[in-house]
Write a structure and sequence with these properties.
The chain crosses the membrane at residues 47-66. 46% of the residues lie in helices and 14% in strands. The chain is built from eleven helices and ten strands. It has helices at residues 13-16, 39-65, 89-100, 112-124, 139-152, 176-204, 225-247, 285-297, 310-316, 321-331, 342-346; strands at residues 3-5, 18-21, 26-28, 80-84, 104-109, 128-133, 158-161, 207-212, 253-260, 302-305. The strands form two sheets. The chain has a seven-stranded parallel sheet with strand order 6-5-4-7-8-9-10, sandwiched between helices. Strands 1-2-3 form a three-stranded antiparallel sheet. The N and C termini lie far apart (76 Å). The structure holds nicotinamide-adenine-dinucleotide. Nicotinamide-adenine-dinucleotide binds next to helix 3.
Length: 347
């Protein structure tokens, strides 16, 4: 079959890419949305685009070489930070940490006693704290409480979606109501809090959304099917929201998603790690919170903990399935949930 590619610097791009096939057929195989661009101009744009791509990669490599301690951090003095699930674990420590940095803290939790305890601790250390008993899985309660926060404290400028629950059973043993609850607390609640607090951030083109997901938002885990699903959704929400904000000209509203391995808070009480030397030890809550706050102050997009595990995320999509399964077994992921107790039985 005879194909004639017509190249001429005087032709428009659409003409240039017209493929004239023998037997009188002609097909336009690339559309340039009707733009009339000369060949030198198009080549120049391609080169510029390639240069920008390389420049952004180089910039990232240079940034990665600068020690984190030397990088510029933003201040949160006077910011209004709302933490969901502030009555225990990571939420409590994050609330205390941001309080120590001079932010006003709004604490939400369904556990009234735990939430009040966190608020008292912040106030004892000279910080400002306002606690509210809220079930974040209930959209109406979230909107009601958000209105109260606006009246009592002001516009929330940093939102930390942290509240979370886990069932910890094989998929077919998960009762329907627990699957629904897991999705309601771990992901649907993010929609309600975002709807309540994002508009004022967008109006000012300033703010920060922090979603506490999990490493289970990047890797599937057995006996954590419902939890993993909710955490993958939290990572997806973060990703899509980030692009929506940037592409609508609201890049001043920052987003950070946090994906930690198991943390020693009690939520995953009983989880057995095969060999802490060979595999990953449970993370210390203080290490996690220090790194999360650091990522927020540095306005990082993603905080995977421990940091080196990010390599595993890249490998997962490159390695063959059998190799991935082998690594998962070697790390003890196949059995780690078999001794899970969680908060349900312990507390
Ligand atoms: N602990 C881990 O190993 C681990 C690992 C990765 C990610 N995470 C995530 O980190 C976050 C914090 O976990 P944690 O270890 O501190 O757990 P935690 O159980 O100590 O704290 C969770 C808090 O959320 C609150 N909460 C639960 N349901 C709620 C609701 N409907 N409304 C309001 N508050 C509610 C609880 O009362 C509790 O205070 C969770 O999102 C969890 O999924 C935990």
């Amino acid at each position: 079959m005879f194909v004639d590619y017509t190249f001429s610097t005087t032709l428009t791009l659409e003409q240039m890419y017209s493929v004239h096939v023998g037997q009188g057929l002609s097909c336009e195989w690339i559309s340039f949305r009707g733009s009339k661009m000369s060949l030198p101009r198009a080549l120049l744009e391609q080169l510029w685009s390639l240069f920008l791509l390389l420049w952004y990669c180089l910039e990232a490599v240079i940034l990665a070489c600068i020690p984190r301690s030397m990088r510029k951090r933003k201040s949160v003095v006077g910011e209004i930070v709302l933490v969901t699930g502030a009555g225990s674990g990571i939420g409590r420590l994050l609330a205390q940490g941001f309080g120590q940095l001079g932010a006003t803290i709004v604490l939400w939790d369904v556990n009234q006693a735990g939430n009040e305890e966190t608020a008292d601790q912040i106030r004892e250390n000279g910080g400002k704290a306002y606690e509210y008993t809220v079930d974040v899985s209930n959209s109406e309660k979230v909107y009601e409480a958000a209105l109260k926060v606006k009246q009592d404290v002001g516009d929330v400028t940093i939102l930390v979606n942290n509240a979370g629950i886990v069932t910890g059973k094989s998929f077919l043993d998960c009762p329907d109501h627990m699957i629904k609850k897991t999705m309601d607390v771990n992901i649907n609640a993010h929609f309600w809090t975002l709807k309540a607090f994002l508009p004022s951030m967008i109006a000012k083109d300033k703010g920060h959304i922090v979603n506490i997901a999990s490493l289970a938002g990047l890797f599937g885990m057995n006996k954590l099917v419902d939890y993993t699903t909710s955490k993958f959704a939290a990572v997806g929400l973060h990703d899509a929201l980030h692009y929506e904000l940037v592409f609508s000209g609201k890049a001043g509203v920052k987003t950070t998603v946090v994906c930690p391995f198991f943390i020693d808070t009690g939520m995953f009480s009983g989880v057995k790690i095969k060999d802490p030397l060979l595999t990953l030890p449970l993370l210390k809550p203080s290490y996690v919170v220090r790194n999360v706050i650091d990522s927020v102050l540095l306005e990082e997009q993603m905080c995977v903990l421990p940091r080196h595990i990010f390599l595993g995320v890249l490998l997962k999509y490159w390695l063959p399935e059998k190799a991935t399964l082998h690594i998962f077994r070697r790390l003890g992921f196949d059995e780690c949930m078999s001794s899970f107790v969680g908060r349900g039985k312990r507390d």
